[in-house]
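Side project, low priority. Logging it here so it doesn't get lost.
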Amino acid sequence: MTARLHLRVIRDGATGGEAVGLAAPVFDQDWQNEIAAGAANTAHAACGGEPTLAGMVTLARDMMAATSRLSDALLARAPAGAVACTAGCDHCCYQSVGVTPPEALAIFDHLSHTRSDDELARFAAQVGTRRAETRGLSAAERFSPAHPCVFLEAGRCTIYDVRPLSCRAMNSLDASECQRRLRDPEARAAFVAAGLGGHSFLEPIQASHAVSAGLQLGLSELHGLDMRPLDLIGAMDLLLNGPAEIPDAWIDGEPSFQASYSLNRNPRRVP
């Protein structure tokens, strides 16, 4: 099992219950550390005696729902009309997306239960093609209208109910800016070179980072699971087109998602 570098487990001598806390702050802001500790607690409790695939899918869905609630609550504080995101606005869906293994498993589970065998086979082929097109590209190169998310159709997310944690926090105060920096080559090059985010409320994004950090720490440090971040398309390609034993091998503590590790950060940088 991975050494506990960031977490500590406190046991109640009277009840035998356990609580997970941070050994030291992970983020600069206290509220993010509280969210991370809460997510680690939830992840630890979800494992019970030992992790299971079904438990990981449920955990991921719970974390997704919690992130959406946090994001919605934080954005509700914004002045009316300040958030520019609307249905069909897809400018942020053309880049590399990082996910944790439980998120990837939840998305795979969703696909398996909502698509027919023929539909799943066709989609698996599309994912394989997209993976071949983007393999080896940097995050900067992936940020392009030439590389839409494989789950994007007609400007809408086809897995909205199980979209990744990072997608749930995205927001913009200027949709025209988002469109320009994606579609205009000069604006896109300047944006990528600057390495900064666009105009948005940072708190929802920071909250999603805290949830993801707690999830990763709870499962890696307390249960020995390989929680290194994955590239969404790479992970889907492995699950749809790779060996069927990948999920079971991962739950047993093996680095079975190794071929889809995310090597690059997204082009925007936020705290």
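Brief comment: The mean pLDDT is 92.
Revisit when time allows.
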